[in-house]
Amino acid sequence: MRPTGITANLNVPDIEQARSFYSDFLGLSVEEMNLGWVARFTTPDGRAVVQLVSGDATAPVDSVLSVHVGDQLEAAYEEAQRRGFEIVHPLTTEPWGVRRFFVRAPDGSVINIVSHRDDP
User: Fold this and answer.
1) In 10 A of CB 99, how many CB atoms?
2) Neighbouring residues of 26: CB distance < 8 A, sequence distance ≥ 6
3) Cβ-Cβ contacts under 8 Å for 58 (sequence gap 6 or more)
4) Which of 47, 65, 92, 105 could form a cystine bridge with 109, CB 3.0-4.6 A?
């Protein structure tokens, strides 16, 4: 697998309450996306990114990272299964337009392996 990007997912109780710290204080002033339960904030130049998650809409747990893999998603899913990693959320096309699955790393961290419609 060759990731095309990795985004930290920080669990917060309330995205709106956390907004001013991440946006104003840390300078992640561009809100790229906000679905109510997940929001992505970046710097104006796009070099720094964080996602705030208050509870995943369809998965049973929140992930700590989103690893973007473009057109390698199915291959990554098959490789995770072949290696015997726990699939926490099955390969799914979500209503908001991403295709993804969650896998548990050996250290217990839950990782969101994802492909967006516009990923190469």
Assistant:
1) 18
2) none
3) 89, 92, 94
4) 105
- How long a stretch of residues is the chain? 120
**Per-position b or e across 7-44, b if 16+ CB within 10 A of its CB:** bebeebeebeebbeebbeeeebeeeeeeeeebbbbbee
Question: pLDDT truncated to tens, each residue of the chain (120 aa)?
Answer: 889 889 999 999 999 999 999 999 999 999 999 999 999 999 999 999 999 999 999 999 999 999 999 999 999 999 999 999 999 999 999 998 899 999 999 999 999 999 986 655
Rounded Cα–Cα distance for residues 34 and 31 (Å): 7
Q: Report DSSP state, residue 22.
A: I
- From residue 107, give the alpha-carbon distance in Å to each of 6, 24, 43, 52, 95: 18, 33, 30, 22, 30
CA 27, 33, 38: angle at the middle one, nearest 5? 95
